[in-house]
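Lab notebook, page 48
Experiment: co-folding of the full assembly
Goal: obtain a model of how the components sit together before planning crosslinking
Operator: M.T.
Materials (sequences as entered):
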Amino acid sequence: MKEGLIRKVPGVSVVEIDLSRAEDKDLSEISQTMGLALSLREMKALKEHYSRPLTDVEIQTFGQTWSEHCIHKTFKGIVEVEGGRRINGLLKEYIMKATKELNKPWCYSVFEDNAGLIEFDQDYLVAAKVETHNHPSAVEPFGGAATGVGGVIRDILGVWGEPIANIDVLCFGPLDLPYETLPHGLKHPKYIYKGVIAGIGSYGNNMGIPTVSGAIFFDSGYVGNPVVYCGCVGILPKGFYVKDTKEGDYAVLAGGRTGRDGIHGVTFASTDLMEDTDRLRPAVQIPNPLVEERLRRAIITIRDRRLASGITDLGGGGISCATGEMANRSGLGIEVSLDVVHLKEPDLAPWEIWISESQERMLLSVPERNLGDVLEVFEDEDVEACVLGRFNGSRRLRVYHRGLVVCDLDLEFLYSPPRAIRKASHVEYVPTPCALPEPKDLAEELLRILSDPNIRSKEDVIRTYDHEVRGCTAIKPLQGDLSGPNDAAIIKPLRDSWMGVVISCGITPFYPDPYWMAAASIEEAIRNNTSVGGRRIALLDNFVWGNPEREDRMGSLVRAAEACYDFSKALDAPFISGKDSLYNESPLGPVRPTLLITGIGIIPDVRKAVTVELKEEGDPLYVLGVTRNELAGSIYLKSKGLNGGECPKVNAKISKDTTQSLIKAMDSGLVAACHDVSEGGIGVAAAEMVMAANLGLSIDLRNVPSDVNRSDVLLFSESTSRFLVEVKRDCVREFEEILQGVPHCKVGVVGGNSFRIFGLDGSTWEVGISELRHAWRGVDGP
Amino acid sequence: MVRVEVKLKKGHFDPEGDVTTKSLRDLGFPVSGVRVSKVYTVELEVNDKERAMSLAREMCRKLLANPTKDDFFIEVLAGEGGVN
Amino acid sequence: MVRVEVKLKKGHFDPEGDVTTKSLRDLGFPVSGVRVSKVYTVELEVNDKERAMSLAREMCRKLLANPTKDDFFIEVLAGEGGVN
Amino acid sequence: MDLSRAKACIARVGGTNCDLEMKVALENLGLTAEVLHMKQILKRGLSEYQLFVLPGGFSYGDYVRAGAIWGKEVHSKIKSELEAFIDEEKLVMGVCNGFQVMIEAGILPNGELVEVPKAALANNMSAKYECRWVYLRVERGGTPFTGDLETGEILKIPVGHGEGRFIPASEDFLKELIEEGCVLFRYSMPSGEAAEGRYPYNPNGSVYDIAGICNRKGNVMGMMPHPERAFFGWQLPEERNVPYGDGKRIFQGIIKYLQKY
Ligand SMILES: Nc1ncnc2c1ncn2[C@@H]1O[C@H](COP(=O)(O)OP(=O)(O)O)[C@@H](O)[C@H]1O
Ligand SMILES: [Mg+2]
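Observation: model returned without errors.
Model output:
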């Protein structure tokens, strides 16, 4: 590097860097050695703007604020698609656009604050947010996953929400991966799996927030990049959502102490995970749910007493981003002193305090008259708090350390980073015929699929999460003593209302066409929600993709985002929040592109919710929706190691009509049980209904609405928009009436003590319930 | 038999140690700090000290410790079923 | 400084140890059993070895161990802030 | 006493997290229930209350051992206050973490706050947290907490804990507990026969399938399962169209007792 670019400021641990004299290669080197993850273009923008030297505190501020994590460079940037088309931001052009056009009056605050807010009823709001914590979990599975949960809980607190439920969706490499094949520096999927699950359970359980919804997938595409989604749902009285920081208000920092943990977490999440994971030391965070539990109490008290004017969590970028964002969104400036921050260790440099991502911290803005009360509330709950600074009208971010100004930045400039430009190119998925001879014994196939790691019961994980704490869980992830897999969870958040919040997931990472994969995920989230009786569904999107600077990764991302717009609109379900995690690359290549869609619905009366298990001998079973020969990415093919086939597509009209009719039938009290048909097709869905009830069923594949001429395809295809519905015996006529115009057919009858399948050619197969259960759960009893 | 002690690395904050410190002080003990670590006493089916040591190291690497945040200390003990 | 090791009494089940045993065996290690214990490294504000020992014993009785299931072992260590 | 004058104190410290549902259950039956931080209890004392509840959660992060730190705090700070409370035949109830606290504070199984606990709640045999519904057999009806129940009745109530395996200090002591009617609830099969350690009916491996115990008089009770999570019909895992669940029966016992108190 050129001589004299960097100068130590006497008396304090601050250095000054003179970018104005730096050459391109110096700029890149500075970005590298300071761990900024800023591109040359961004470094040059800094150089151009500042003729004076910048302190390390200031440069780090840019590194944080302009990071992928904090400002969603890729999703807000410009995308140049092959053929000259330019997309003016994926968020704006697709995700937010759908919401804007749907224009739902019940969307209260979307894409703005730490979490999306929708109306629950007249007086209450529901807050929802889902985040990823992939990189930290790959390095330190327990702490990474636990702090992921802790972080998303703070997003809910950050909109004054009382957390009422957690969500976790996890993707790992195969647990039986031979150790020898694991590249150096990566951790074995089993180690990651165990740690992540323990971490999620530990944090949620400790906080007393039920973990009620989620999914687990296994695939070799996740060996180098495990995926950990953590979500949280909260509730708050509408009038208590305050976001009104004023000049003269104090900035109060509360919660855990600030240390070196998690420094550069943001930039860490914005670069490839290419290095030996064990060497990325400072980035691991030690979870401390006990502190967050007390913090939660204090914040809800402060909310209820209306003592503060604003709140935000400290996530990526630590104090630097929280203070900057709060000042900026309120059109203000702020002065901050680093000397008052409670530290874990004494010798932190100012820039470290400034950007540390120590967990369990929140920032509040407090009017002068309430400052004493706020500090008292924190003290009562044994939460450390300090008055970090004060908001003013300067529009500047000014930071003091030992009497010296170590950072003085113009917020306008700080929050108008150069827009990223990404290039995208995409090769469409062309279905190849899959050469799969029709197997003779479908019973055997079914048992094999039921025991596939992706299908198997996840009970041994789910029961390590407390899903009953708070006493508000009306529909649990597992149904009854026999642990049937319910499609969605329902929380009854208010004491004197029967209404429930319905929480569901949709995720179909194995479908090879990114557009239809996204469509299927959206449709699945809605379908799962509908299965238990949810309606008026809001969506959250969470993209986990590879390096967006590579055109192919970007290409598939664009296709998936397009589907988000198309199907959010067509299915009448707005996005309210979301997040993207890009740069998921490892020595084994990019992560399998994975989109999680979370569905948040409501149900007017939790007592009317529908569950998965068959109820009554003699009831008819219906299939709703059309089964097509769509095997691409299905568990049926995947479990045989085969590719090809058509990708499941979504017919929005059929889907919408079906869910609407089904809800109507449920509200009329005609439906005894319902299950959505997804991975493993009708075969697995029906088997799950049987196992959950310990009650047999026969189905006749000849009656399944379809144009398919193979029994195995009928049984295992993963076509979308389908449900299995047990209709109360004496309600058949009424049900048929409501279902008019929607593809449906009676295919079976509940009864007996086995699962019987009648094939197209008249062959029949029969499997005992206990055989099913052994395959799916490994045990027979509860 | 080997004894493996797994400890949070220096510099990492130990929430359990912190809470334990407070509780002990509260109970009147003159304590200024506590660190908590875990000890695995592992019975190995091998009789060779060297081999026991290298196995233990391997166990730490693969399961018992995470070098990102933990230090580990191994001690090979004599004893039944262990090294003689 | 004192080191207090809290260990399950002999004959008591150690579920965590059993799970660890199984995991290690699954990974191919020739392990026949694991017991897990906890070590508290306590910095005491006293300089007298005897007193440190008796305080540690008291801490075990009052907090660190539950005699129904735990044994404890105390070692007084030299070191900063501890016994010289 | 007149129920409108009876009051419950639900205690909490950092990490307690099942206090609100406890309050909801008690209030539903017409009791006034206040959630008080230990700090407030130290200031206000317990004299105005007839029911003292140690609810579930992860007090102090459950560090050292579940319930240990709070247990020792209770022992060192409100021992005499609580002993007087028990002597006056008021009610003390611990659920889950609260039960762990009672064991660690020596409140149970002895009924007085001894320094060295005579039992332990060790980690589950599965070495995992277990959240599931279990069947409980009422071993002794007619106590203050089981006044609404008969011996031999089966209740369905969920557990959620990682350390719930009851271990008595000795065989003899276990015998004593049984003989003196201190074993209140045992994990059982749905049919009512003893679980005899069978997982998952006995979810944690408790000795003698013990799920909850009380003192001789029966006015001090601790249990691992959460009756407040099985209070309303809609909380139940299967039939949800009933107004209440089995957990309510335990609270009803409390109400009955307090009305007579
Ligand atoms: N990919 C995305 N899709 C939809 N909404 C997004 C996406 N990325 C960010 N948002 C929205 O932008 C807002 C700010 O998000 P974020 O920066 O993640 O907040 P935080 O830093 O608190 O986690 C949130 O409301 C979030 O839902
Ligand atoms: Mg946030």
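Interpretation: The pocket of adenosine-5'-diphosphate (ligand 1) is lined by residues A 72, 75, 91, 95, 111-114, 116, 155, 315, 541, 543, 575, 577-580 (CB under 6 Å).
Next step: discuss with group before ordering constructs.
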